[in-house]
């Protein structure tokens, strides 16, 4: 395997330091919300995790388009990396949302448009991984993966827009909320600092992890090629 | 009239659970990347040894 790039080592260290700083800003620096109390602090990382999830799925779309246009296998590796990252962070987003909802909505789960569409996204991409495994031919698998990633991405903006176009109890913190929303709040300047710093931190973490996952994919391909050569 | 003021609800335990999930799943994913990387490197070494 090729040597780890210095820039990736820099991203590794930056990710750890930024996560420590973001944790300080969200847990200590940001003021406690007046009604919801401490659980509101989960919001900063909850939104950031959802953001990274969406970036991961978007990486898969871009990679899918490049694969279909150029037919180079490296784009299939990048697409799979993006989807794996997206799944992990979208899962964190859904679970932390559920934890926040328990004291605020008095339930772990409700059939709200945002919750349903976010779960559909997660299931769409879990299905992607399962269906991929069923295709033996690498070229067919990559072509299938590229088309699925592009078509499946339709569910992502649908989730983002769900709280803006349908009646929902999910708050819209940036922009105006539905009057029926439960748990909406106005962000103070310190809250905004913690929020945007968390978004930046998770973006850097996302880039770092997707880079590591791409390298892992390349190594797996190399091992597979050598195994075939030995047979 | 301060006795009429109701402070925020005590939701500290949910906050701890939330951050536990965030750090926990990120740590599991990093561990998973590391473990898969280690296994592939072992496989690569074994293949190279067999090829000699």
Which features does this protein show?
heterodimer; A: mainly alpha; 7 helices; 76% helix; B: mainly alpha; 1 helix; 0% strand
**How much beta of chain B, percentage-wise?**
under 5%
Distance between the termini of chain B: 86 Å
Strand residue percentage of chain A = under 5%
Question: How many structural units, i.e. domains of chain A?
Answer: 1
Rg of chain B computed from alpha carbons, rounded to a whole number of angstroms:
24 Å
Summarize the structure.
With 231 residues, chain A is an all-alpha fold.
Protein architecture, described:
Chain A has one domain. Chain A is built from seven helices and no strands. Chain B is mainly alpha-helical and 52 residues long. Chain B has a domain of 31 residues. Helices cover 77% and strands 0% of the residues of chain B. Chain B contains one helix and no strands. Chain B is rod-shaped. The model of chain B has no long low-confidence stretch (mean pLDDT 88). At the A-B interface, α2, α3 and α7 of A face α1 of B.
Topology, element by element:
The complex is a heterodimer of chains A (231) and B (52).
Chain A: H1 6-29, H2 42-70, H3 73-105, H4 113-133, H5 138-152, H6 155-165, H7 189-230
Helix pairs in contact in A: 1-7, 2-3, 2-5, 2-7, 3-4, 3-5, 3-7, 4-5, 4-6
Chain B: H1 12-51
């Amino acid at each position: 395997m090729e040597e780890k790039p210095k820039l990736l080592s820099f991203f590794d260290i930056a990710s750890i330091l930024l996560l420590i700083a973001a944790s300080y800003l969200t847990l200590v620096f940001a003021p406690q919300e007046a009604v919801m109390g401490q659980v509101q602090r989960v919001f900063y990382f909850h939104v950031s995790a959802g953001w990274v999830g969406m970036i991961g799925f978007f990486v898969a779309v871009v990679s899918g388009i490049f694969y279909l246009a150029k037919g180079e296998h490296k784009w299939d590796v990048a697409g799979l990396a993006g989807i794996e990252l997206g799944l992990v962070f979208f899962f964190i987003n859904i679970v932390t949302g559920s934890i926040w909802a328990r004291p605020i909505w008095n339930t772990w789960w409700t059939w709200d448009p945002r919750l349903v569409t976010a779960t559909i996204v997660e299931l769409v991409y879990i299905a992607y991984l399962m269906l991929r495994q069923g295709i033996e031919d690498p070229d067919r698998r990559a072509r299938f993966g590229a088309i699925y990633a592009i078509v499946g991405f339709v569910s992502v903006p649908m989730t983002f827009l769900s709280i803006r176009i349908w009646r929902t109890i999910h708050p819209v913190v940036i922009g105006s909320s539905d009057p029926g929303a439960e748990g909406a709040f106005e962000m103070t300047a310190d809250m905004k600092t913690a929020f945007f710093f968390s978004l930046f931190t998770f973006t850097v973490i996302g880039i770092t992890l997707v880079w590591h996952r791409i390298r892992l994919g390349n190594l797996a391909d190399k091992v597979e090629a050598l195994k075939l050569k030995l047979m | 009239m301060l006795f009429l003021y109701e402070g925020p609800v005590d939701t500290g335990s949910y906050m701890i659970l939330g951050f536990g999930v965030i750090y926990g799943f990120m740590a599991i994913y990093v561990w998973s990347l590391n473990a898969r990387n280690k296994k592939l490197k072992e496989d690569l070494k074994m293949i190279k040894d067999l090829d000699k």
